[in-house]
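Memo to structure team: turn this sequence into structure tokens by end of day. - J.P.
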Amino acid sequence: MTHFRLRNVPLLSRVGADRADVLRTDIDAAVAGWQDARLLRVDHRNQVLISGGAVVLGSAAKWSATPDERAVFLGRLEDGTHVWAVRAALEGPEDPDAESEVLDLRRVGPILDDASAQLVSTATALLNWHDRARFSAIDGAPTKSVKSGWSRIDPVTGHEEFPRIDPAVICLVHDGHDRAVLARQTMWPQRLFSLVAGFVEAGESFEACVVREVAEEIGLSVTDVHYLGSQPWPFPRSLMVGFHALGDPQQEFVFSDGEIAEADWFTRAEVRQALAEGDWDSESPSRLLLPGSISIAREIIESWAAQGA
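Reply from structure team:
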């Protein structure tokens, strides 16, 4: 059981809408579709309004007569309706009798339908980037949103910048048999464990990053690095790339960079029991609490634990 695959597509990697990238530069199509377009509002805390397992979409035409610089184009729904997003205060559903609640993506991800998960994840990442990219990285000049929110340009020099993505690896280290390493960051409460993760450095491959990060964070030398899957993580703009790798249980843990407070080898039975207890939000007295279902870490752990079941 050295190798395994993810059993399911990670929650934030689901696809339920057409990104319709060809429309981002088609001004006529954007204007024509705006009158019937739907608008996703994301507040300053990255919260959205949810109703019945779907994100609440309002009328774009009520926001403005035509697409403006504050709006970002997210794509098209199955019926061809355009969807845009803006950073703005939330408004209730158009149906006053509909029940709704305000949640952020970390809490609402598991209950959203595929289209809503994609729209909220994309909107959160794009709007977070715009909040931090209002000035040119070259000369500090104010930039303007263009291409329906998918790039920003310096009107004077013409320098164009695109949404930034920060790639990070996340890895389950196992012994090739019945044990896997889980670690607790220093800032986490007791009993909360997850996988080793870290950002990719300039000039570094994903696989090399896995080897370096595991060595830096917990002191293990890993081999046989294999890709599992990826998931956007728009907090604020990361892409989590999942792997598993082989480690030696006889090698001593070393926490040299100060990020990890403790780590241990857990058996598959222990992990299965912890998974059955729920996640980090549960009231379980278990010595091991695991990440919530929105994270790719949870899917990787569940997929490994299911081997041989």
